[in-house]
Amino acid sequence: MENLSQELELNQEEDFANKDILAQNIAFFRKKMNMSQTDLAKHLQYSNKNISKWEQGETTPDVFTVKKLAHIFGVSVDTLLSPIASESKEAIKTKSAVPFRYKLYILLLVESILFLLTCTAFFILKAVDVKNFNSALLFLYVSPIMTLTVFIFECCIKKKVELISLSLFGWLLILCFFITFVYINNIEYLFLVGFAYQFLAIAMTQLINSGKIIKINKILIKRTKK
Known about the structure:
Elements: H1 2-32, H2 37-44, H3 48-56, H4 63-73, H5 77-81, H6 86-96, H7 100-128, H8 137-158, H9 163-180, H10 190-210, H11 212-225
Helix pairs in contact: 2-3, 7-8, 8-9, 9-10
């Protein structure tokens, strides 16, 4: 009986240790991917309270959720359940954790270069005096490109698609076409394309951010193999 009780105590201690390891790893990999608890909760279709309890070791996710977590973090289930040495964690943090302000500086540098090139082209066209072309339109034409760089920046940092920048990119592109070809009959119908694009952007944003598009791709791949 004494040996049995000791074995039970050891098993309980091991369970508590495993729970703590999983809790620490969920928090670690979530932060590594620059995801908030709310972002992770949306991917898993749980509340952020569940994520908080997992990371504090109050509760543990079921087996299927652990598999989903491993897939989202891009690691194996074994890695998610295994202790990661503090030295390895620090090494990964040092390697991947680039301060946000430096990333923002890179974005501002790219935007500044684009604006500088536009200004240069504007003054060249003004000096050459190109006929039948309004040089000021260059600033309108570069706006979709600048918006696209912001969209890519947000996707890389937040690991999700931002609807505002995606929508703004499409509408600015349509506005460029409209002003360029304003003399064409019925060009105003071009904005119908804009509304169609807007609905498509909303649908794609929801699918990608929820992770459902990944599931759809897997289903299509399986059907193609069959």
